[in-house]
Structures are given as structure tokens and as C-alpha cells.
Amino acid sequence: MFERIERVPGDAILGLIEAFKKDTNPQKVDLGVGVYRDDNGNTPVMRAVKEAETRLLKSETTKTYIGSHGAPAYGDAVLPLVLGADSPVLEADRASATQSPGGTGALRLAADFIAKQLPGKGIWVSDPTWPNHHGIFTAAGIELHKYPYVDADNRLDFDGMLAAIKKIPDGDVVVLHACCHNPTGFDLSAEQWQTVLDVVRERNLLPLIDFAYQGFGQGLDEDAYGVRLFAEQLDEVIITSSCSKNFGIYCERTGCLIAVAKDAEQKDNIRSQFAIVARENYSNPPAHGSAIVSEILHDAELSAMWRDELTEMRDRVNTLRRDFVEALKPYGLDKKYACVGEQRGMFSYTGLTPDQVERLRDEFGIYMVRSGRANVAGFSQQNLPYLARAIAVVNDV
Ligand code: PMP
After folding, report:
1. DSSP string computed for 322-353
2. How many Cβ atoms from other residues are within 10 Å of residue 54's Cβ?
3. Which residues form the Aminotransferase class I/classII large domain (predicted)?
4. Is the pLDDT of residue 15 over 90?
5. How far are the Cα atoms of 130, 139, 208, 365 from residue 17, in angstroms, in the given order?
6. Do 65-298 and 11-44+308-394 have the same topology in CATH?
7. Is the pLDDT reported for residue 333 higher than 80?
8. What is the DSSP code string of 80-126?
9. DSSP helix/strand/coil, 196
10. Which of 77, 255, 361, 395 could form a disulfide with 297 if both were Cys (CB 3.0 to 4.6 A apart)?
11. What top-level class would CATH report for the domain 65-298?
12. Which residues 6+ apart lie within 8 Å of 115 measured at CB?
């Protein structure tokens, strides 16, 4: 039977990683892969994570299953992190947490829940969005639609987005990026969140907010602005949260599916359904990552250490954004690429065209995906002058 199976092309990013590894150019720069990098190009284990692991190794007494909802202590720590320590939603017992294998796992749980419990409802994602949104929602059998997000001049197309959302059929699901939009880096302002909320309420849509980069944009609380506004103002919201980036525990697969419902009873009903989809997918989530996160968040000293380090990472990315634009000034390109300084998070839609991306790779060993999305954490004080010169060359300056 297997002779009929066709080979499919691998992930474009993986191809990029391979090509980068083979490149012998000593000045080569990797702006493709989606993980945080420090100035030396490493993705280190955070100090608070190492300390939490040391403590866990000593205190761990069992490796038994942790249950479909994961570790209760993890849920108790993540809910206030996402919704706010003194959230009225938590006060009213309207939110539940189900631990998941990463943000991806939370998205898949949400997708299966929607396909099963809200049959016939379509799902709307930004164009562009993280490509795996397409894969996850279609794999669950949900009909996928797009709303515009970026205009031809590489700016947030808020008018286009709003006009499209206004036409979404009653009861469909709309996916919003809480912060640090992947791949563009364009985030909504407070005012824009409110405008979207009004339309979501008017059209009776179910918001699914993907929160994969809390703390990478402007701050842990600042980045949660839209999430908290929606959870407090609407009866029903689904949130998928990830600890991969903000705790740097990518391989530990640590995320959370949060349901916000009208009241405690409806919340518990939904929660019971989440346990079923979790069981059907993988039974129980992995334990180690969530144990790290709860060890940190339930300990004042480790929490402070973690917050400081996350601030360092965020500040580094935001400084590099500004320095990148600054480095382009001598070439008269600072205005053209000013958006990189204004966007948030790890990624930037630079506005570089596929041809320019190709030239950067072939002539300078600078690697990024064809859309011109760059991982800003791949910039460094050492490589910025080289990057700026290369970008000037492909702009014929
Ligand atoms: N959503 C978005 C927008 C992402 O960029 C990512 C990670 N690249 C995820 C979800 C999934 O994160 P995780 O690694 O925790 O599965």
C-alpha cells in the first residue's frame, strides 16, 4: 500500500535552516527561524528556568499521569498571568484552564472543540497569519476564511480588516493575535481592539485569541490588553496561550487552552468537553514544562528573576528594531523601513520583496522567508551594519 504514498515538500523554514547550515559565508545571518536569539545567536535556557528545574529534580516524587487538564497548580498560575491578577473574570469564576502541549496543542484542542460542538461554524484568520493556523483548523475539518490584515504599502490594513469582520456570518469564529502578530509584527492599538470588540459583539462572533508571545511586545500586562478587554466585556472567548517563547521552553511543549464563559456552570460544561478532546488527542499533556512554569510563578524570587530576564529579551528586540532603522539612515532608507521600528514582537514584515529576499540570500548569505518576514532576534549589534549595507544594495542604493 505504501508505494502509493507521495512525498510532500517539507516545511519551508526547515529548508531554510538546512541551506543556512551549508552556507560557508562567514558573515551569514539567519533571520528565518522562529525562536529568540541572544547577541551570540544562542537560544539560552533562562536562569529562572534552570533554577526551577534544579528544585524540581530534588522535589519530584512521581511520574504518574497528571490528568487531561494538566497540573492544577499550572492552571492556577497561568489564569492570572493571562487574565490579570485581580481579573473580574476570575473573581466571577468564568474562566477555566486546560494545559496543552504548547500553543499549537491548545489551538488543536480549540479546533476540535469547535468542529464537534459548534458544527458548521467557519473560522476566520488574518491574511497573512502563522501558516500553521491553516493546517490546524483545516485538519480539524473547519472551513477556513481570511480577512485582510496588511495593505499593499506594508501597513496594518485596519479598515480592510474591519470591513471584512463586519461581514462574517453570525456565530462564526474569528482568530485574533493578542500581540506580536506573526508574521507581520503589526498589532492593534487599544482603540482598535475596542472597535473590533464592538463588531464581534454586534455580529455575535466567537473570538479565539492566540496569545503566543505574552511579554515580548510591550510587557506582560500591556500585551494582554486585548485579551483582558474581550474576556471582561464579552460572555464567551477562547484563548490559546503559550509558554514556549516567554519562558524559552519551546521543546517542553507547554501551553494552555482557556475558556471564558458567561458563568461558572457554562465554564465547567466547556471544560468537561476540553478534557474529552484532550483525551482523544494525547490523553495527558507532558508534565515537565508546566511544572517549571508553576514553580516559577508560585515563587516570588523566581518570578522576579524570570520577569527581569523576559524584560531583557524584550528590550533587546525593541532596541534592535530601532537600531536597524538607524543603521539604514546613511543609505536614506530609514523611512522606507520605519515599520520595523514600529512593529512588535519577534517578527517583522520588512516589506522586502521575494526578489530582494533571494538576492540577500544568494549575494550576502542573509536568510529569511520569501514573504520578507524577518526574525528580529536574529539581528545583532555585530551584523546590523552588514545587514544595512546588503539591504541598500538590493534596493539599488
Ligand atoms: N501561535 C502563533 C501565532 C505562533 O507564532 C506560534 C509559534 N510559532 C504558536 C501559536 C505555537 O506555539 P508553540 O510553540 O507553543 O506550539
Report:
1. HHHHHHHGGGT-TTTTHHHHH--SSEEE----
2. 11
3. 27-391
4. no
5. 18, 26, 31, 12
6. no
7. yes
8. HHHH-TT-HHHHTT-EEEEEESHHHHHHHHHHHHHHHHSTT--EEEE
9. helix
10. 77
11. alpha beta
12. 140, 141, 142
Q: Which CATH number fits domain 11-44+308-394: 1.10.357.30, 1.10.3470.10, 3.30.420.140, 3.90.1150.10?
A: 3.90.1150.10
C-alpha distance from residue 109 to each of 98, 102, 221, 224, 261 (Å): 9, 11, 25, 21, 17
Give the residue extent of every domain in the chain. Answer: 11-44+308-394, 65-298
Q: Which atom of ligand 1 is nearest to the CA of 347?
A: 5
User: Whats the size of the chain, residue-wise?
Assistant: 397
d(CA 195, CA 156): 15
Whether residue 183 is preceded by a cis peptide bond, meaning omega within 30 degrees of 0, is: yes
Relative to beta strand 255-260, strand 95-100 is antiparallel
Record the cell numbers describing residue 68, joined without a space. 487531561
Q: Rounded to the nearest whole angstrom, what is the distance from the C-alpha of residue 250 to the centroid of ligand 1?
A: 9
Query: At 215, is the pLDDT very low, low, confident or very high (cuts 50, 70, 90)?
Result: very high
- Annotated catalytic residue 130: yes
- Assign 3-class secondary structure to 162-222: HHHHCCCCCCCEEEEECCCCCCCCCCCCHHHHHHHHHHHHHCCCEEEEEECCCCCCCCCCH
Cell of 123: 473560522
Between 14 and 356, the more confident residue is: 356
Separation between Cα atoms, residue 161 and residue 239, nearest integer Å: 20
Is the pLDDT at 12 greater than 80, yes or no? no
Q: Is the reported ipTM for this assembly greater than 0.85?
A: yes
pLDDT at 13: 81
